[in-house]
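Lab notebook, bench 4. Still working through the backlog of constructs that have no structural model yet. Next entry is a single chain of 146 residues. Request: give me the structure tokens for it.
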Amino acid sequence: MVTHRVVIDETASMSGALHDLDDILASLDVARRDGVWTVVTVPDRVEPELLAEAAATIAEDEGLTLVLPVEMAEAAGFDAGFRASWLTLTVHSALEAVGLTAAFARALGDHEIPCNVLAGYHHDHLLVPVDRAEEAMAVLRGLRTG
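Model written out:
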């Protein structure tokens, strides 16, 4: 089984992070990461090279989920059925902020754009179908207020 060591930097702060949803939406923008991404699950033991190349990992009871470039996933023998563009909300929202996920999920849902969310310390990251990425970016930018 893969284990992860988590180091918490207690000196880190959310300095500059926005808490108020109106402020967050006023500052909202989105960037598109290069490449085409997919999500795969691997057994408890995974090649270190594959793990090192994963842009994100999530440990679940059923196995380890990896977010990988499609080419790498296919080269490792995985089916890359879900091909995604990786969008990053460039606004720095606080982890305690309320409403941002609901706002973008509703907006994308209203346009029937599938979205898988990964929350990082500084930003939220969205995996959307490659063929809907430009539309998703426009929808997300449409949430800007102010």
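Notes after review: The longest helix spans residues 100-110. The two ends are 49 Å apart (CA to CA). Flag for follow-up if needed.
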